[in-house]
Amino acid sequence: MNNNKKILIAEDELLIAKVLRMQLEKHGFEVENVMDADSAFNVVKQMLPNVIILDVYLKNNSTGIEAALKIREAGINTPIIFTTGNSFNDTTKLVQDISFCRVLNKPVDFDTLLNIINLETVS
After folding, report:
1. Can you tell me the distance from the alpha carbon of 91 to that of 99, in angstroms, rounded to the nearest whole number?
2. Is residue 3 within a helix (H) or strand (E), and if so which, with residue range?
3. Counting Cβ atoms within 10 Å, is residue 118 exposed (0-12), middle (13-18) or buried (19+)?
4. pTM, whole model, 2 decimals?
5. What residues form DSSP beta bridges with 9?
């Protein structure tokens, strides 16, 4: 399946970022990786991805939630998938006011992630 969709992954754990990237590229996605909230925001403005995957806790004491809020403040409504290794319920409460987002607990099941991405990127 080659769908030419772009995905931004903001993940500070290199192994997780690399595995996600490889799996998504294998399914025909164009993928960019960043490690902190500022980079995520800057790349989103340039790349205009179809889906954004944000780890809740990122490098430089930043969070995916900070990045998402800046993205929404800029008027960008790209679907966001948050990933977290901490409490799913706590993260769900933190992101409840952010539009067009979902939360997945780590370790993320790739088939579930792929299904969500495919649902979010249907034209």
Report:
1. 14
2. none
3. middle
4. 0.92
5. 33, 53
Mean pLDDT of 39-46: 96
Per residue in 102-116, pLDDT tens? Answer: 999 889 999 999 999
Residue with tokens 């991805």: 49
Strand partners, 45: none
User: What residues form DSSP beta bridges with 52?
Assistant: 8, 80
Whether 122 has a pLDDT exceeding 60, the answer reads yes
Domains of the chain and any CATH numbers: 6-120 (3.40.50.2300)
Tell me the β-bridge partners of 7.
31, 51
Contacts of 35 (CB under 8 A, 6+ apart): 10, 11, 12, 17, 58, 59
> For residue 101, what are its two tokens?
């987002």
Strand partners, 105: 84
pLDDT tens digits, residue range 55-104? 999 999 999 999 999 999 999 999 999 998 876 667 778 788 898 999 99
Which amino acid makes up residue 36?
D
Residue 3 is predicted with a pLDDT of 53
